Amino acid sequence: MTGDLWEVVFRALDGKTVREGPLTFGSDEYAHDVALFSGGLDSLGWAAQRVGLPSPHSLLLVTFEERNFEAVQDHVYEAVRGLRRRPLRRLPQSQTVRKPHDSGIKLELTTRSRGLLYAATAVHAAAAEHVPVVHLPENGQLALNPPLSAARAGACSTRSVHPWTLHHLNRVIAEVAEPGSAVRVENPFATLTKGEVCAVARDAGLPQKVLESTLSCGTPPARRPAGPELAHCGLCFPCLVRRSGLLHTFGSDRTPYAADPWDPSLPASRTTHWRALRRWLDTDWSMLDLVADAPLPPDAQIAPLLEVVERGREELRALIAWADRTASRNAP
């Protein structure tokens, strides 16, 4: 996931009370479904689909608070609550890392490994609830995240829900869990494009306006002072995939983006992703590209993975065609 070699060391928690019990709410309230819920389009689609299933058993959504955007996450969660046909619970978690006092330890300032934090916390919650499977919803395009250029291969791009990552995570869980109690991590949207995930959310009963209020940007919001009203830069690869998915499903995307990559007034330094995307879509993409970037698990079904990338490429090509028409109409 990160390209690093890891050394794991356990230490006593200094100056704070250690939570000794499991993340549970009592045996009468155990969940039957556990999933991550980020406030993004993919987790929203899965939650909307699952909460609409009539059942006496609850769905537990594990949320990590995104600084400055808690209100946006709350708004999306309330939209899911409005669809519920079964009990629904939410487990909010902080992702703030605090270093020990006078330790001399330097904290990791990047977010490369936060996907492991998210997954591990969801696994912890599922184990406490006696749920055998944790769902980490991520569309197949971004789960595989094919590099747009050689500079983005391997750990240079996010691989937190890549099939190879989940394969090894499940191996680790199986090694440390008691026999018969291992939790398995799965991506239920591994073979769906962004547009197809948007269609899942729409068909579950969510209006376009709710989907447009989700968070998808790859730039940490805390680094941009614009605030929730401009939560998306509009220029990064996750924003471009989001644009293509909403356009595919609804024919429009009214999300307020900070910028448009086809704006001729933008400097070249801000349109790097857009130009790399256009070059990538102009080249052939095959099974060799799929396995050369990152290995696949031994039991992986390659054909559906190839197909989801190709369908995603078609959605992105449609976005480019739409952008070119828009730019032509706006040209002086």
What does this molecule look like?
- It is a single chain.
- With 332 residues, the chain is of the alpha/beta class.
- It is 40% helix and 8% strand.
- The chain has a five-stranded parallel beta sheet, sandwiched between helices.
- Helix 1 (41-51) links the parallel strand 1 (31-36) and strand 2.
- Helix 1 runs parallel beside helix 2, helix 6 crosses helix 8 (237-250) and helix 8 packs across helix 11.
- It is globular and about 65 Å long.
- The termini are far apart.
- The relative contact order is 0.13.
Assign the structural class, choosing from mainly alpha, mainly beta, alpha/beta, alpha+beta, or little secondary structure: alpha/beta
Radius of gyration: 20 Å
Quaternary structure classification? single chain
Helical content class: 40-55%
Number of strands: 5
Gap between N and C termini, in Å? Answer: 46 Å
Average of pLDDT: 86
Strand coverage percent: 5-15%
Spatial shape: globular
Low-confidence stretches: none
Q: How do the helices and strands follow one another from N- to C-terminus?
A: EHEHEHEHHEHHHHHH
Number of helices, counting only DSSP H or I runs of 4 residues or more: 11
- Biggest sheet strand order reads 3-2-1-4-5
Largest sheet composition: 5 strands, parallel
Considering the chains and any ligands shown, give keywords for the structure.
alpha/beta, 11 helices, 5 strands, single chain
Topology:
Layout: E1 31-36, H1 41-51, E2 58-64, H2 70-81, E3 88-93, H3 114-129, E4 133-135, H4 140-144, H5 163-176, E5 184-186, H6 194-203, H7 208-212, H8 237-250, H9 272-281, H10 287-293, H11 302-330
Parallel strand pairs: 1-2, 1-4, 2-3, 4-5
Helix pairs in contact: 1-2, 1-6, 6-8, 8-11
